[in-house]
Predict the structure.
Amino acid sequence: MHISEGVLSAPVLVTGAAFAAAGISIGLKKMGYEKIPQVAVLSSAFFVASLIHVPIGPSSVHLILNGINGLLLGWLCFPSILVALALQAILFQFGGITVLGINTVNMALPGVICYYLFGKLVNREGGLLSLVAAFACGFLSVCFSGILVAISLVFTEQSFMSVAKLIILAHLPVMIIEGIITLFCVAFLKRVKPEVLGGIYGKGA
Amino acid sequence: MEKGHNIQIYLIILFLASILVISNNLPALAHKVIIFAWVEGDTVFTESKFSGGREATGAQVLVFDRMGKQLLEGKTNNKGEFSFKIPKLTDLRIVLNAGMGHKAEWKIPESEIQEESGVLGSKMATESSQPVAVGLSKAEIKELIEESLDRKLRPIVRMMTESQSKGPSVTEIVGGIGYIFGLMGLVLYFKNRGKKRNLKKQDD
């Protein structure tokens, strides 16, 4: 879902960069001392996830992991994803430097949205409901990313609906896999280190 | 609180259901796309691939000249290939537009086209005029060598295409992770310095 360089027009790029800057500044403000290692770990996870291709389905797509990023980091997933995307652009030539801003927004914003939608639900005591919410978090964050990519391409491609439909359908297997990954991550963290999940909400960060 | 949760769950179920209903044919898409082009005789061959090795099928290919004027356009076949006769002796810029924000280009300089098409033209001329040659002229030897080189190099050209579309290496991956943790250390260091300074101020 990385948008290549030279596809988007300058106004779209600038708008994307502005949104990214806003998100990153919020994220950096909220980044407490004890959160930094967690941001780094999730950033690396995001960085590597793009190399894991999902061969199921009609096309070749890769994992994104922006759901679990958003769920565990909230606004902090903006800086986390920015760093990962910058390194992907430099080392793997995925995306590019000029499109860094818009790509960051496309990936990080759904994470933040899912954090607000499902954060409290995931964190609740009680097994099934929180697991369903975790699945939905992983699933929907990829879906929202697809919609955002389609929106950014509105000025380049013919129609928003057809592009959005194409992207979302192609990522359907990824959505399901990310949902399952998020579900297992949450289940694991709840048992082993519940304060990782509870930490953000407890301090109201 | 409980009501809010119920609404969330309904929304989730509704969404899952609506997604499962839609179905369609899809082109391949990934995060990076590559087009590779080479000249053989009077034809330009192109191959388009997504990183991860899948071919870019049915993608639009545009060919521009040096001035940026569009010469022709076409679509890749189901192997991601597209070939066309050289329309004009000029630098060619071949742009692949695979849709959904995926774009790549490849340039063929005029000199490459000249060399290739020159070889072809003179080869035809000599083949018809001299069936049995007693002694070979310099030009003929050159032709023969180039012809066989072409044939021998074709697999290497293919290999290059494939290596271009290969994913990142282990060093790059490990390097990237290293960068992230290096950054983490840097941020921690600066935050820590700020903390110490604050503590000192409090002591004073």
About this structure: Helices of chain B lie at 2-21, 110-129, 138-164, 170-203. The first strand of chain B starts at residue 33 and ends at 40. Confidence is low (pLDDT under 50) at residues 14-30, 123-128 of chain B. The radius of gyration of chain B is 29 Å.
